[in-house]
Design brief:
The chain has 240 residues and is of the alpha+beta class. It has 2 domains: 75 residues, Orthogonal Bundle (Arc Repressor Mutant, subunit A), CATH 1.10.10; 133 residues, Endonuclease Chain A (Endonuclease, Chain A, 2-Layer Sandwich). Helix content is 47%, strand content 22%. The chain has 9 helices and 9 strands. It has a 7-stranded mixed β-sheet with strand order 3-9-8-7-4-5-6, with helices on both faces. It starts with a helix and ends with a helix. The model has no long low-confidence stretch (mean pLDDT 88).
Length: 240
């Protein structure tokens, strides 16, 4: 990291940094000398000298009728660092409050096409930790086609030992082989066929809704909503 970049982190502009470095290198200078050594135009030097004086980095002296400008010791930069640290410290509570407001706002993402639906299943296995549980309503006539699932999804899911609870139609359940990590409850036929070709999945702090009729989906990321949906699922699951 060069010296100009370092000083920019302390609140100096690039021109201010060039001016100050020229004074440190050449010692007391007139405005003309500063312009020559810094590569800045005289109006630019005149513009930034007062700012550097206010920051305590430049002072003046007289030699005859001429005013000479002096770059103060770089140790003076420490007080600028202290000022920046103090400003950050004071700003943190307000930033934390704003972050807290944002954190509780739902984030909704929309997906289209088979590749979009594959992204959701990839997110499920990537988001959940080893041994986690997710919940799924499978309102489908047939088990889901592989074209909607990433090639390595099942291997990654099983490697993490993810457990899932499923509420499905009778037709769907009959075509799924029993698995220890998958528990299925069936919606009775007297409530309808439950074959809308829609799936709702609750995982971590997210709820995904997939419409296979149109190959569209959305995911809502919101912890209270996900917990609310999880509670409703468990209530229904226990009643079936």
């Amino acid at each position: 990291m060069n010296q100009i970049t370092i000083m920019s982190h302390l609140g100096l502009s690039e021109n201010e940094a060039k001016l100050y470095l020229a004074l440190l290198e050449k010692g007391p200078c007139t405005v003309s000398d500063i312009a020559k050594h810094s590569g800045l135009h005289r109006p630019t030097v005149y513009k930034h000298i007062p700012d550097l004086q206010q920051k305590g980095l430049v002072t003046t002296t007289r030699k005859g009728k001429r005013i000479l400008y002096i770059g103060e010791s770089p140790e003076k930069l420490e007080h600028l660092l202290d000022r920046v640290n103090e400003e950050v410290r004071l700003a943190i509570p307000e930033l934390v409050e704003e972050f807290g407001k944002r954190k509780h706002k739902p984030v909704i993402k929309f997906y289209e096409g088979k590749h979009g639906i594959r992204e959701i299943f990839d997110d499920i296995v990537q988001t959940l930790k080893r041994g986690d549980i997710f919940y799924r309503y499978s309102s489908r006539k047939e088990p889901m086609s592989d074209k909607y699932i990433p090639k390595d999804y099942r291997a990654r899911r099983d490697a993490k030992q993810l457990e899932r609870f499923v509420i499905a139609s009778q037709g769907y359940a009959k075509k799924k082989k029993p698995r220890l990590e998958r528990q299925i409850k069936i919606v009775p036929n007297n409530f309808g066929l439950f074959d809308y070709d829609v799936t709702l999945i609750i995982y971590s702090n997210k709820v995904a809704v997939i419409d296979f009729n149109s190959d569209t989906a959305f995911v809502m990321e919101n912890l209270p909503f996900a917990r609310f949906q999880q509670t409703l699922f468990r209530l229904l699951y226990d009643k079936l």
